[in-house]
Design brief:
The protein is of the alpha+beta class. Helix content is 23%, strand content 20%. Among the domains are: 27-64, Rubrerythrin, domain 2; 80-111. It is built from two helices and four strands, in the order ββββαα. InterPro entries: RbpA_sf, RNApol-bd_RbpA.
């Protein structure tokens, strides 16, 4: 029996299908550049909407080459920051009063 042992396959790790006569989905390779001049290439599906900005591996924003590099239109509002949203809810006087209250609390409870 040892001379005719059967060999099996690992489950789920190998496929019996071949890639002959299989056409991959159409793709497009898009180039982005950072302000430092680093080039970033990203592959998208042919029908995908291409973003104007891509974050490179370095963490910097890269802008689409051969496209509109202006990321903000005149109609777009600037991004609101945390401070902008806070100032919509509170006045500077309210914030100063809150700060003084918290400092007084910490001084009284955590005095050295």
């Amino acid at each position: 029996m040892s001379d005719r042992s059967l060999r099996g396959m690992r489950l789920g790790t190998q496929s019996m299908e071949t890639e002959s006569n299989v056409q991959p989905a159409p793709r497009q390779r898009v180039e982005y550049r950072t302000t430092d001049g680093d080039r970033v290439f990203v592959t998208f599906a042919a029908e995908a909407e291409i973003p104007q900005v891509w974050v490179a591996k370095t963490g910097r924003e890269a802008y689409l080459v051969n496209g509109e590099s202006d990321t903000q239109n005149d109609d777009d509002k600037p991004a609101r920051t945390h401070w902008d949203m806070l100032m919509e809810r509170r006045s500077v006087e309210e914030l100063e009063k809150t700060l003084e209250d918290r400092l007084e609390y910490y001084r009284s409870h955590y005095a050295l």
